[in-house]
Design a protein that fits this description.
With about 120 residues, this protein is an alpha/beta fold. It has two helices and eight strands; from the N terminus they run E-H-E-E-E-E-H-E-E-E. Helix content is about 20%, strand content about 40%.
Length: about 120
């Protein structure tokens, strides 16, 4: 059985992206170079910020991936919204109810979408 535990984001500048992701994830990277930054999260997932121009085969463009973060409550989603919007992230979707739960979406400088959410009691 395969395990999905590693996400690689093509970015324009791993160092610039690391400044943001260190704040978003509230953790320091375990690897930090000019072309690659790696985080190992408490749940075991690894998040790599990889210099897009170094990736083979080349991605069409940085950005475009959506990463979801589960939260424990609507209040936690709103707290994250208040915190993340202070970082100057572009808001693509204000906090709102959707069929699956309460959520919002912001975009990082490379165009990756970040979606915190809490599941609805009865997702539709």
């Amino acid at each position: 059985m395969r395990t999905l535990n590693y996400l690689l984001l093509p970015v324009r500048s791993p160092q610039a992206s690391a400044k943001l992701y260190t704040r978003l994830l509230s953790t320091q990277p375990v690897e930090d170079s000019e072309s690659f930054v790696l985080y190992v999260l408490a749940n075991g997932i690894k998040l790599g910020l990889w210099l897009a121009s170094d990736i083979e085969p080349k991605p069409a463009a940085p950005g475009g991936l959506e990463i979801a973060f589960s939260e424990t409550s609507r209040e936690a989603v709103l707290h994250t919204y208040q915190e993340w919007t202070k970082f100057g992230l572009k808001v693509l979707q204000e906090p709102t109810d959707m069929p699956f739960g309460f959520t919002f979406v912001v975009e990082d400088p490379d165009g990756h979408r970040l979606r915190p959410f809490v599941l609805a009691e009865r997702p539709r």
